[in-house]
């Protein structure tokens, strides 16, 4: 057996097999290069779904002829200053895309640096076929024709022009969402498909997905331990039959990540039917050394150093926003309060050959909040009002708020927040008294979860047991639930365990689980609570009010918001100008 070095054309072609699978992946590489070059305006032209032609023109920094020749060589890049592969702020970093594409197509590269003349280099399947001056505005234009024409093995796997076009559109969409500050146009077979002016991120997302998001979206902006998450998600009521409108960006890079899919599903767990999916565009900012971008040939996957923290932030942030929103939209005076979200701070490379250092840009825009469909029931005020501090229930508004009449005014109670607090306090009292009532399940329930979640729950089993939740490991990816806290009543064990695992992951860090007990108990309590949206009978409402009166700390929900507000007679009179 003799070992030989492969000729460079063959090496390039092998690399091409990984980097460019289809027109959309070549297009993605070209658009990324233009963005890395500091382009502010980018035009894409396609013929036959990119099978015949892909052309990308930009107004970026351009290259001089020497740089153009170098750009077409393998492993030549301007983007890794100091060889810092763990500090990548540009889309590209390997110097592989252009030579790979050039080895499997006819490629024409034209470029012009501001203040100099333009130059053109043509390559046919890896072989240089000519160079000459070219007339073009400052920037770069790359044309790719007949991609894979001479690579039958690849050609076979290509799909119809329509399907290839759909994939190209998706690639442009993702990058246009990632960089809303850049203008984009897209033309297919001579037809103008997209024409996007530079915009704020929410407007760009809405334009690319659906304008309905402006009415049915919830803004996200949260941060924890160096991570920041911004973006928009749809209200549970605004959902889709396919999980195709879910976009995640990590430090501006569009990524396809199972973590996002799982975290999204967990965040909407009890809000959406199994076969329905939310819309989401989420921008995550992570310190550069917390994420490895060099794990996938197409650079569409990343590896987080602490995936549990990311998952926890996404689930926690989304849940919180959804909760907050359902409350806010019901409260009239707050209905005018805008839902803000701040964009991912997109990196803007310096407009010189590649060396792009991130400069952070803050952008803001407003989503209109959604208003409830009014829904109220009232009880006739016949009996005299006894001296209860929280009064007597008179009705329920929006299936969420109890309206009660007290001696000294009108009381409005958030039923879910209040009940959640009561359950938590009951559990706490039982724990302190050392007698947690548990309800053994007749048939233990098997709950399937992913392995890390099982590991977390298993490690916490003793503490969970103290709260009346008896769980055991059941194989590699399932848990067995033997008993649940009696305070919970009937509950969905699968949901509860998934939330607890997320909660434990989210709390993370060096705290012992014992210190986290209150958080965990709060998660359990939330499951045992009357959901907003449930119609309550007058007896139930009054029972809730009476229990609140005798429960410590019942004025605040587990998230620190008030559980009730009172409008005194004096204040009511003021409202009507009667004082
Ligand atoms: N549109 C463009 N404008 C200016 N320079 C460009 C453009 N496209 C490519 N280049 C230059 O050519 C070099 C090679 O591009 P190529 O895409 O092959 O590699 P890369 O972007 O460095 O890394 P990767 O393979 O990860 O994409 C880039 O580093 C950049 O300097
Ligand atoms: Mg590149």
Structure write-up:
It is a single chain. The protein has 579 residues and is of the alpha+beta class. Helix content is 33%, strand content 25%. The N and C termini lie far apart (102 Å). The structure holds adenosine-5'-triphosphate and magnesium ion.
Q: Main beta sheet: strand number and arrangement? A: 8 strands, mixed
Spatial strand order of the main sheet: 5-4-3-6-2-1-7-8
Mean pLDDT: 80
Derived from helix and strand composition plus strand pairing, the structural class reads alpha+beta
Gap from first CA to last CA: 102 Å
Please give the number of β-strands: 25
Proportion of residues in helical segments? 25-40%
Strand content: 25-35%
Oligomer kind: single chain
Which runs of at least 5 residues are low in confidence (pLDDT < 50)?
327-375, 509-513
State the shape. elongated
- Using only C-alpha atoms, the radius of gyration works out to 29 Å
Small molecules held by this entry: adenosine-5'-triphosphate, magnesium ion
Number of helices: 17
Short description:
With 579 residues, this protein is α+β, with helices and mostly antiparallel strands. 33% of the residues lie in helices and 25% in strands.
Keywords:
alpha+beta, 8-stranded mixed beta sheet, 17 helices, binds adenosine-5'-triphosphate, 33% helix, 579 residues, binds magnesium ion
């Amino acid at each position: 057996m003799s070992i030989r070095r492969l000729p460079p054309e063959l090496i390039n072609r092998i690399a091409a097999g990984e980097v460019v699978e289809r027109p959309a992946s070549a297009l993605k590489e070209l658009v990324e290069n233009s963005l890395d070059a500091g382009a502010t305006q980018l035009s894409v032209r396609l013929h036959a779904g990119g099978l015949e032609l892909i052309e990308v023109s930009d107004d970026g920094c351009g290259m001089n002829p020497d740089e153009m020749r170098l750009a077409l060589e393998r492993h030549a890049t301007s983007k890794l200053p100091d060889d810092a592969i763990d500090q990548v702020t540009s889309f590209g970093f390997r110097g592989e895309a252009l030579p790979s594409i050039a080895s499997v197509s006819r490629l024409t590269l034209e470029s012009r640096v501001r203040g100099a003349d333009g130059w053109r280099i043509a390559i046919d399947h890896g072989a240089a076929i000519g160079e000459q001056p070219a007339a073009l505005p400052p920037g770069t234009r790359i044309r790719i024709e007949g991609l894979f024409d001479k690579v039958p093995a690849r050609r076979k796997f290509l799909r119809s022009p329509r399907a290839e076009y759909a994939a190209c559109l998706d690639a442009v969409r993702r990058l246009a969402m990632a960089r809303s500050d850049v203008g984009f146009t897209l033309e297919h077979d001579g037809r103008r498909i997209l024409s996007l002016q530079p915009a704020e991120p929410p407007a760009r997302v809405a334009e690319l997905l659906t304008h309905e998001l402006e009415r049915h979206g919830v803004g996200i902006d949260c941060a924890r331990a160096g991570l920041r998450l911004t973006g928009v998600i749809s209200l549970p009521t605004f959902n889709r039959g396919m999980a195709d409108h879910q976009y995640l960006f990590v430090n501006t890079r569009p990524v396809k990540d199972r973590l996002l899919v799982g975290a999204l599903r967990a965040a909407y767990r009890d809000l959406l039917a199994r076969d329905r999916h939310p819309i989401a565009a989420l921008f995550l900012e992570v310190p550069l050394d917390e994420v490895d971008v060099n794990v996938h040939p197409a650079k569409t996957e990343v590896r987080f150093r602490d995936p549990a923290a990311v998952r926890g932030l996404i689930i926690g942030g989304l849940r919180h926003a959804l909760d907050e929103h359902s409350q806010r939209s019901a409260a009239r005076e707050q209905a005018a309060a805008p839902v803000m979200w701040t964009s991912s701070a997109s990196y803007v490379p310096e407009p010189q050959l590649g060396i792009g250092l991130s400069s952070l840009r803050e952008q803001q825009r407003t989503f209109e909040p959604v208003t409830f469909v009014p829904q109220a029931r009232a009880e006739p005020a016949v009996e005299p009002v006894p001296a209860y501090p929280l009064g007597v229930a008179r009705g329920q508004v929006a299936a969420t708020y109890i309206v009660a009449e007290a001696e000294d005014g009108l009381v409005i109670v958030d039923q879910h927040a209040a009940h959640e607090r009561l359950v938590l306090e009951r559990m706490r009292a039982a724990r302190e008294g050392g007698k947690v009532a548990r309800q053994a399940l007749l048939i233990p329930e098997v709950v399937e979860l992913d392995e890390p979640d099982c590991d977390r729950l298993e490690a916490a089993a003793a503490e969970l047991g103290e709260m009346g939740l008896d769980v055991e490991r059941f194989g590699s990816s399932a848990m067995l639930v033997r008993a649940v806290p009696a305070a919970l009543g009937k509950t969905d064990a699968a949901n509860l365990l998934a939330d607890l695992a997320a909660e434990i992951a989210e709390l993370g860090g060096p705290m012992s689980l014992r210190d986290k007990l209150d958080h965990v108990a709060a998660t359990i309590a939330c499951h045992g609570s009357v959901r907003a949206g449930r119609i309550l009978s007058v007896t139930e409402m009054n029972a809730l009010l009476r229990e609140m009166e005798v429960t410590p700390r019942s004025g605040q929900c587990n998230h620190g918001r008030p559980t009730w507000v009172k409008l005194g007679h004096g204040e009511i009179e003021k409202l009507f100008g009667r004082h």
